[in-house]
Amino acid sequence: MPTSAQATSRRARPGAPADHAQLAKQAKRAPYLLRITRRSDLPPPLLIVKERIAPEDRDDTAGLTNPRAKHVERGSLHGDGVRACLPVLRRILEAVKDDQGIALGLERFMSAQGLQETDLNLPLDEAAGARLALFFRLQGKVKDVTRIELIGRRVALLSREEAVYWLANVTTADPVLRSWAISGLRLMLCGDAGDQRLPLVLERIRARG
Question: The whole model's pTM is what?
Fold first, then answer.
C-alpha cells in the first residue's frame, strides 16, 4: 500500500498527468475551462467551454464592494458531435501545459471512460480555450456530423492569434455583427449543408493529421 508521500511524489514527477484535485485548482485561475457534465435535455456527453472574466474586466460590478472573477459560457458540444470529434479534441487538449510547461495530459479525458466524468472542470490556456470556444460556437446549429468534424479540424489548425480574433467576432455584443461573423466563418470552414464535396475535403484534412 503506497504511503501518502509516495503518492504525492508520483503525482509531482515530470510528465505525470495532473490529478483531479490539481486540475480543479488550476481551473479556478485558468483563462478558460472545459467542463465535462450532463443535462437531462441533451444527449451525453456534454462539453462546455467557459471563459474566465477577471474582476477588473467585468462590466456588471456596479454596487459590488469585492467583485470576483466569473466564468461565462462560450459554447458547448454534445452527443454524436463529441464522439465524431474525439481526435480533434485530443489534438487541441494534448498541447495544454501548466505554468511550468508540463503537459497536463487532458487528452486522456477524451475517451469513453474519461467522458463518464461529471462536473469536472479542465483548465485551458488561451490557445486551447479560444479554439474550443470558437469551434463549439460555430457548430451550434449544424446537424451534419461531417460538417461539425470539418469545422473542428480546421479550427484546430488556426494559430492562437487567429482563434482569439475570430472568437472575439463571433461573441461580439452586437447581434447583427455576431450573426454575420458566425454564418460567414461557418460557410468558409465547412461549406453549405448538402455539398457533395464535403467528404472529400474532410478526408484531405484528416490526412494532414
Answer: 0.88
